[in-house]
Amino acid sequence: MCGLGPGGKVVHSFFLSSPTLIRRYGGQSGATGAAEHFAAKAMGIINQNLDTPSLAEIQAICLIIIHEWGSRNAVRAYIYLGQASRMVQMYRILHSHHAAVSDADRFLQDESFRRVLWLLYILDCLLTSTPGRQPALSVNDTSDVSLPCSDMNFAFGNAVFVQTINLSDPSRLPTGTRTDEVGEFGQIVLATRIWRDVVQMLMTTTTETFNDNVCSGLMAEIERLRASLSMQYVDKPGQINLHITMGSGFTYAMLHCMLHCASIFINRRRLLQYVTAPGFNLESWRLTPQCHEIIDRLFTSCHSTIAMLTALEAGFDKEGIICFPIFMLFSSFTASATVAYLSLKGLTPPNAVETAGHIVRDGLHFMQDGVDTWPLISSWLRHLAVMHRVLGNDAGAASPSVGGTSVPPTAVPADQASVKDEAASNPDTNPDAMDYDQSSNAAAPQAPLNNHTASVSESGRDSGRDSEPPAPPPRRSGVTTIKDRKSG
């Protein structure tokens, strides 16, 4: 997968497992500083060879995009994304006529290119989901390109044909030839497109223009993709443990994190529409079938997301340091923040209170462990810490004798920003973001749901904001949200 699975963590995990290199090249900045050093070296080599970009150089710039994104250099990552797309286009032109090679070698060359192209497509979906950022790849770049084949066929060089992202046959399919199944990576590409469509819906829908049929259609797409998965990739209890044993745990988790995250967004948007309706009464709505359906779906997706990351962590080499891909950590944050919001609003089912506490606590744990690797997630950590603290205080106030049993307090290291500092933070001082409707981002029970949308890609430092697309107007002071701004 080259960017979102185990291979996609290479820039950081390489240095995390190499203390000597970290000390030599990272200095005071540690693993991130060492990664920055080699990213700069790699970009120098890439730019020297722009006349004849190679597949290895395109793969390298994809890793650099992920590195810059995780380091909170959103503008730089976005610009590199555009450069990578042009390199792909020129590589395609320069290699349109194959040298005399065997069919097996040609298949491996073509499949390697397709996998790089689809990795770039995934990054494009994630990094250009903000209004004002145009996709780096056009429809023509991907419409007639086969999705990646199965990893098994790729590993053994079995030349097969696979359908395109529109699930149609590629134009080069010989007459009478049947297409093979879409591979694991290809399923992640399809899941990413659904996720991007969900984000697009959130960004273009208001309470006045909301149409539940659109949400139903998107949920149907998720279910269709799930139904099309091979037996070994079906989402069911214990399945990920088998994948961890086989070495495909991260691939399995990435696919289902993408689908669960999309499902959470859809059902949060439905929830938003109900709770902001005129005359809404929480006690009455709790008794409706719509409430039970939405809450059940949210808890199912949130619990599954956290359970997958927990299993990956438990199955990881005890001598190493696990490095989750950025999107997995975002899915974890989304799941934990959603459950925290439901708990703060009193929407947690009575039989799920303890589970809710574990989901929030475990999500905070993943943020704490991940922030040293990906500085991007520092704001998610701060906001989840605030919600976790409020939940703990509420539990203690409700029942002093068992206060904190469902949501035990977790200390946040001083260098990761204290809860007190976050609660008193000024608006617009650190506009990091990775969410789309803030239905689960309230840090206190009184915070209302709202449909403000933000982006997976907004993560620039203050010094780089001048080159960002225009930001939305500042909101009134109030409760801190995950954008490190205030909402009234």
Automatic annotation (TrEMBL):
<feature type="compositionally biased region" description="Basic and acidic residues">
    <location>
        <begin position="459"/>
        <end position="468"/>
    </location>
</feature>
<protein>
    <submittedName>
        <fullName>Fungal specific transcription factor</fullName>
    </submittedName>
</protein>
<keyword id="KW-0804">Transcription</keyword>
<keyword id="KW-0479">Metal-binding</keyword>
<keyword id="KW-0805">Transcription regulation</keyword>
<dbReference type="InterPro" id="IPR007219">
    <property type="entry name" value="XnlR_reg_dom"/>
</dbReference>
<feature type="domain" description="Xylanolytic transcriptional activator regulatory">
    <location>
        <begin position="77"/>
        <end position="154"/>
    </location>
</feature>
<dbReference type="Pfam" id="PF04082">
    <property type="entry name" value="Fungal_trans"/>
</dbReference>
<dbReference type="GO" id="GO:0008270">
    <property type="term" value="F:zinc ion binding"/>
</dbReference>
<dbReference type="GO" id="GO:0005634">
    <property type="term" value="C:nucleus"/>
</dbReference>
<dbReference type="InterPro" id="IPR050815">
    <property type="entry name" value="TF_fung"/>
</dbReference>
<dbReference type="GO" id="GO:0000981">
    <property type="term" value="F:DNA-binding transcription factor activity, RNA polymerase II-specific"/>
</dbReference>
<dbReference type="GO" id="GO:0003677">
    <property type="term" value="F:DNA binding"/>
</dbReference>
<feature type="region of interest" description="Disordered">
    <location>
        <begin position="397"/>
        <end position="488"/>
    </location>
</feature>
<dbReference type="GO" id="GO:0006351">
    <property type="term" value="P:DNA-templated transcription"/>
</dbReference>
<feature type="compositionally biased region" description="Polar residues">
    <location>
        <begin position="437"/>
        <end position="458"/>
    </location>
</feature>
<keyword id="KW-0539">Nucleus</keyword>
